[in-house]
Design a protein that fits this description.
six-stranded parallel sheet, single chain, 13 helices, 42% helix, 12 strands, Rossmann fold, 3 domains, disordered N terminus
Length: 353
């Protein structure tokens, strides 16, 4: 898989090489006095090694710069999206920018209104965290005119200025893991398919099964919530052919599915393996701990802001999509299919024994 990379190294790269925090790199760049000589030398060596050049947008003090960016957020009621917005704000403040946050609950009319508002405020740039079907990039460009913008966690075309996590890669890794464990019957609980992430995870699941010559899993669409996952799992369990593994499109729905399996007398993972997506902090403490895909939201927010600064520096640079690979966290909610279930996939243990 060819992964587009950042056109130049970022402060995150410098921080990793120097073994310091993102904020420490910013302090060195801005000649902050409260940095030890040893740390300053280490950061400066990393900057030289990577040939890192700080963004002009982060350091210029010309009056034409407002030193303000806007973040437009859809889905603030979901902790992960709110966390991305918070990480953008932390990265922006580290570089001396203030942030205006606008929450929207409708991704077309309200997005147009939000963009019109922030354009009137003469912000330096705009971050859009709108992971649902709404305005196209061309429509956003027409409203923003010369104000640079970057989509975060919204899977637009590859020539759209955006930073995303490779949802398809993460889903493929999960499905491959379950197939490798010998599972033969699958149930899928997708997110709402008007969400771009849900579409990608759902399509990647189907494509991975097709690549193995297997039928697509029994699919139920849900709403990202624990209760939605619970109800969806109930539908899957009503099918006469019980799944040996359930693929939930996020961890909350996986938790609901695990509750439904418990009520049905089905042990996880002995009788049904369960996987999720996102690696929320609670996932490692489910019973059993959940196999899932970790999305680095700190990295997503910080790289998103740094890419916006690059666009603020060079308005004529061709836009591109930056892709971050996720990581599968293998935990105790999955295991190899038992010989009994291989021979009789519809069999279940007696919950009274």
């Amino acid at each position: 898989m060819s992964i587009p990379r950042m056109s130049r190294p970022t402060m995150l790269d410098v921080a990793k090489l120097a073994g310091v925090s993102y904020q420490t790199v910013s302090r060195v760049i801005n000649d902050h006095p409260y940095v030890s000589k040893e740390v300053r030398q280490r950061v400066e060596a990393a900057i030289k090694s990577l040939d890192y050049h700080p963004s002009k947008a982060a350091t210029k003090l010309a009056s034409k710069s407002s030193k303000i960016i806007a973040t437009v957020l859809y889905g603030s009621w979901f902790p992960g999206l709110a966390e991305i917005a918070l990480n953008v704000e932390l990265a922006a403040k580290t570089s001396g920018f203030d942030v205006i946050l606008i929450n929207i609950t409708e991704p077309k009319k309200q997005l147009v209104e939000a963009l019109d508002s922030v354009k009137a405020w003469a912000v330096d740039g705009i971050i859009l965290i709108v992971p649902v079907q709404g305005l196209s990039s061309d429509e956003v460009q027409a409203i923003c005119e010369n104000t640079p913008f970057v989509f975060i966690d919204a899977h637009q075309a590859t020539n759209v200025p955006s930073v995303v996590i490779d949802e398809a890669y993460g889903t493929q890794e999960l499905v491959e893991h379950l197939i490798h464990l010998g599972h033969t019957r699958f149930g899928e609980i997708s997110g709402p398919l008007d969400w771009l992430n849900a579409q990608i995870r759902h399509c990647a699941s189907i494509q991975t099964f097709e690549a193995h010559g297997m039928k697509p899993p029994l699919h139920v669409e849900a709403n990202w919530t624990v209760s939605g996952g619970y109800r969806a799992a109930k539908q899957l369990l009503a099918d006469p052919h019980l799944p040996t593994a359930i693929i939930a499109a996020n961890d909350s729905m996986a938790l609901g599915a695990m509750r439904a399996l418990y009520e049905a007398g089905l042990a996880v993972p002995e009788e049904v393996s369960v996987v999720g997506f996102d690696d929320i902090p609670e996932a490692a403490y489910f019973t059993p701990p959940l196999t899932t895909v970790r999305r680095n939201l700190i990295q997503l927010g910080m790289i998103g802001f740094e890419y916006l600064m690059q666009r603020m520096d060079d308005l004529d640079a061709p836009p591109q999509q930056q892709i971050i690979l996720p990581r599968v966290m293998f935990r105790a909610s999955t295991q190899a299919l038992s010989e009994q279930r291989k021979q009789n996939p519809d069999s279940t243990a007696d919950p009274c024994l």
